[in-house]
């Protein structure tokens, strides 16, 4: 068999096929059909003839191939050259083709042409085809801008926008950049979005403006639009245009939700003031609708939980602000009462009872207003507040617990502040001056709180805020009325006692100066009552007028002594007044009389300075007078007197006896205490010779006549 030609002709192929296909056929015939052996005797010669014929055919075919080989290679070379020339011509015609496509808005063909020429432009764009590349790149840049605009054109068909995204991807435009551009707000700034959100949240309650973001006029002129709906539509379109951009969409949604809820917090918790419950409810409804719509788009964002957190935060701040305002109003009512007595005021002074009534009304009415406001938040059962209604009930009850506890602390602070001596630094800070009037007002306000206000509030809480029962860390309920009442009961008694102590200290200071100032060893025989006695009576009268405005008169009591004690007390008083008759002649008789007084003192009724506290006029006046006279006695015990000094003390006590007896519920107590003052002066006297009773009466009458003539002597002070 001749070797295969490198370029076999069709004849060569046919000859080979014939020769190679005949023998497989003849072999099985010869082998498997013995009956045919008789007819194949001449086949060998025929096969040789056939082989020769095929060989001739192959030779001629090889000759033809050899003669056409050079021509065929030339044709192929010319075909390659022709193809290259077509490509070169395509590159040179590319800018024109692109312009025609741009004019016809056949953007897909333009991208196809550019992508076909891109390999050549990359390889030879800096040399042979530099001009074509620059022109084509400029046209493609313009095309990219048009495609971007088409993607962002909401009025364009969705199929056209999807085709634009596909073409941009073919042009290797960054997909992330396309996503960011698509999800942008067309240049809307954050303030515009917040204005729209505030307008939406405020639309339910008729609030057309909030001070946080602008004026009423600005919001009324703002074009109505639903930026949430716009974002939702963008998100749906985004999913259609960018099927593989779900991760970027979720990221954009989270950023949008963060801004949204940040604005919600600013809207629900405005720094300029507190919203009412009705306004909050309206905002919550709008928030619920917005979150429901947004949650359908991105359920995995867990927007209802975030909305619940925003609502809970706003409600907690609202409750806290309500109780802070209530506490401030309660404090302000006391402050107004304390600062109302200005000497330059032309209006008639208002009584303490007037300010007490104002404070009581402030507590009751303001507490009811707060309860009504907080109840509105609980009434709307469609809001997120329903998820923690029991906790909200405990929050309200705990607010009253904290409110009353802070009020008790404030009253105790006033009590402590009233006994402190303000330093120069305190004066410069203009701290509140705590007067006795403020102390007694706070005391009676404490009584009102634990007797009336706290029970009323407890009853209203049980009716409007049932349930709750969440315990604190110490296992206590949120609101414990019995504890609050006990606090106010104790605080009220402490404040009333503090009022008595303050007034007694003022009077004691007058007495102390009157006793400590003179030189008693050189004192002359008394001719008149000293000025301190008048000042003391004036102060007692002032206290009586102040107490009468607030405290009840109390039961009228008649102090009864046993026969023995009464006789001893009267004998002792009589013996002191009659000392002048019995011991004027000799000092030894005076000393024996002192011994008699000491013996009589053993059987005299003991005076209780501090008795059980009572909210009435007699107890307050009696306690103040008793504490003052006891201070008088103790100051006298620290001095040494001559005869004139002792007699002056005796005259002052004789002058104070009748007015003070008319003030207290038990006149005998005043008599005993004044006798003890005289006894102390007698014990500390070098020559204890008392004045006769007639002389004392005459000097007192002269004092009264002198003051009546000068119109300075007040009428006899009325009893309690």
TrEMBL record:
Location in the cell: Golgi apparatus, trans-Golgi network
Coiled-coil region: none
Stretches with biased composition (Low complexity): 564-574
Keywords: Golgi apparatus, Lipid transport, Protein transport, Transport
GO biological process: Golgi organization; lipid transport; protein transport; retrograde transport, endosome to Golgi
Keyword Transport on entry: yes
GO CC terms of this entry: cytosol; GARP complex
Highest taxon above the source species: Eukaryota
Matches recorded under Pfam families: Sec5 (PF15469)
Functional note: Acts as component of the GARP complex that is involved in retrograde transport from early and late endosomes to the trans-Golgi network (TGN).
Subunit structure, interactors included: Component of the Golgi-associated retrograde protein (GARP) complex.
Name recorded for this polypeptide: Vacuolar protein sorting-associated protein 51 homolog
Organism of derivation: Physcomitrium patens
């Amino acid at each position: 068999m001749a070797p295969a030609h490198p370029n076999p002709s069709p004849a060569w192929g046919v000859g080979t096929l014939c020769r190679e296909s005949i023998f497989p056929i003849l072999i099985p015939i010869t082998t498997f059909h013995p009956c045919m052996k008789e007819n194949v005797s001449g086949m060998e010669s025929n096969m040789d003839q056939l082989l020769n014929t095929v060989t001739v055919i192959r030779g001629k075919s090889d000759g033809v191939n050899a003669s056409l080989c050079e021509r065929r290679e030339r044709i192929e070379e010319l075909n390659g050259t022709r193809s290259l020339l077509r490509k070169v011509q395509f590159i040179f015609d590319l800018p024109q083709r692109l312009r025609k496509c741009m004019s016809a808005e056949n953007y897909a063909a333009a991208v196809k042409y550019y992508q076909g020429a891109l390999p050549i432009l990359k390889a030879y764009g800096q040399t042979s085809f530099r001009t074509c590349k620059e022109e084509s790149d400029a046209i493609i840049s313009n095309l990219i801008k048009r495609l971007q605009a088409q993607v962002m054109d909401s009025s364009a068909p969705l199929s056209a926008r999807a085709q634009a995204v596909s073409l941009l991807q073919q042009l290797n435009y960054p997909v992330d950049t396309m996503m960011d551009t698509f999800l942008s707000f067309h240049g809307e700034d954050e303030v515009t979005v917040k204005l729209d959100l505030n307008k939406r949240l405020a639309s339910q309650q008729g609030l057309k403006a909030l001070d946080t973001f602008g004026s009423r006029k600005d919001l009324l002129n703002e074009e109505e639009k639903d930026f949430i709906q716009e974002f939702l539509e963008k998100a749906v379109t985004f999913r259609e245009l960018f099927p593989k951009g779900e991760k970027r969409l979720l990221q954009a949604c989270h950023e949008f939700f963060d801004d949204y809820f940040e604005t919600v917090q600013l809207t629900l918790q405005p720094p300029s003031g507190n919203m009412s419950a009705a306004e909050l409810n309206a905002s919550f409804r709008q928030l619920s609708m917005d979150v429901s719509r947004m949650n359908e788009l991105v359920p995995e964002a867990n927007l209802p939980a975030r909305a619940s957190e925003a609502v809970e935060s706003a409600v907690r701040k609202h409750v806290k602000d309500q109780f802070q305002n209530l506490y401030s109003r309660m404090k302000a009512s006391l402050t107004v009462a304390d600062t109302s007595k200005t000497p330059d005021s032309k209006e008639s002074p208002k009584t303490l009872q007037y300010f007490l009534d104002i404070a009581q009304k402030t507590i009751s009415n303001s507490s009811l207003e707060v309860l009504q406001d907080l109840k509105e938040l609980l009434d709307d059962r469609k809001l997120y507040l329903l998820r923690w209604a029991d906790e909200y009930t405990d929050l309200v009850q705990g607010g009253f617990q904290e409110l009353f506890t802070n009020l008790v602390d404030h009253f105790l602070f006033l009590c402590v502040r009233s006994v402190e001596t303000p330093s120069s630094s305190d004066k410069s800070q203009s701290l509140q001056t705590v007067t006795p009037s403020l102390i007694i007002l706070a005391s009676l306000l404490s009584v009102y709180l634990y007797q009336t206000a706290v029970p009323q509030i407890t009853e209203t809480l049980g009716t409007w805020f049932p349930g709750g029962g969440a315990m604190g860390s110490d296992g206590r309920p949120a609101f414990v009325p019995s504890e609050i009442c006990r606090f106010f009961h104790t605080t009220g008694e402490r404040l009333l006692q503090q009022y008595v102590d303050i007034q007694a200290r003022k009077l004691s200071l007058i007495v102390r100066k009157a006793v400590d100032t003179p030189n008693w060893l050189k004192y002359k025989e008394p001719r008149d009552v000293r000025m301190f006695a008048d000042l003391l009576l004036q102060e007692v009268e002032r206290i009586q007028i102040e107490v009468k405005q607030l405290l009840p008169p109390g039961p009228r009591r008649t102090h009864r002594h046993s026969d023995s004690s009464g006789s001893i007390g009267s004998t002792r008083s009589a013996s002191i007044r009659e000392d002048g008759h019995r011991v004027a002649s000799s000092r030894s008789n005076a000393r024996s009389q002192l011994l008699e007084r000491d013996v009589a003192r053993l059987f005299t009724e003991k005076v209780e300075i501090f008795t059980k506290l009572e909210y009435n006029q007699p107890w307050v006046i009696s306690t103040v007078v008793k504490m003052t006279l006891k201070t008088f006695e103790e100051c006298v015990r620290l001095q040494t007197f001559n005869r004139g000094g002792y007699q002056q003390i005796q005259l002052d006590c004789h002058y104070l006896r009748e007015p003070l007896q008319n003030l207290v519920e038990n006149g005998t107590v005043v008599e005993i205490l004044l006798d003890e003052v005289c006894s102390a002066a007698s014990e500390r006297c070098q020559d204890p010779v008392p004045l006769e009773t007639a002389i004392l009466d005459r000097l007192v009458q002269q004092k009264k006549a002198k003051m009546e003539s000068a119109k300075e002597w007040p009428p006899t002070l009325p009893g309690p």
